[in-house]
């Protein structure tokens, strides 16, 4: 099973930017579709963005045009560049991996992003 560790969260002002990173280990990275999800207090975890092994991307409407997901298959990392942040982006952000072969899902521990003035 793949292990996922997120980093890069923190406090940022509205309109600011933040870059999250996720390091994967323990399995063959190329076999996974990667993603970022987030969960705000009192809300369900929701999809933010996904990226396939071939770098095909998918974004939630709420972040489209502001966030960008990328992956480095040599470094086994996935990044989420977040721009034009607003208070609605405040959440714990989780790295996600879905194995293409069998659909098994893995999650990171999460990293807090707080957007506040």
Cα end-to-end separation:
40 Å
Radius of gyration: 13 Å
The main pleated sheet reads as: 7 strands, mixed
Q: How confident overall, as mean pLDDT?
A: 96
Put simply, the count of helices is 0
Structural class: mainly beta
Order of helices and strands: EEEEEEEEEEE
- Total strands: the figure is 11
> Low-confidence segments, ≥5 residues, pLDDT <50?
none
Shape category? globular
Give the helix level as a range of percent: under 10%
Strand content: over 45%
Summarize this, please?
The chain is mostly beta strands and 117 residues long. It contains no helices and eleven strands.
Structural summary, described in words:
The chain is an all-beta fold and 117 residues long. The chain has strands at residues 3-7, 10-12, 18-25, 32-39, 46-51, 57-59, 67-72, 77-82, 91-99, 105-107, 111-115. Strands 2, 4, 5, 6, 9, 10 and 11 form a 7-stranded mixed beta sheet that branches. Strands 1-3-8-7 form a 4-stranded antiparallel beta sheet, with no helix packed on it.
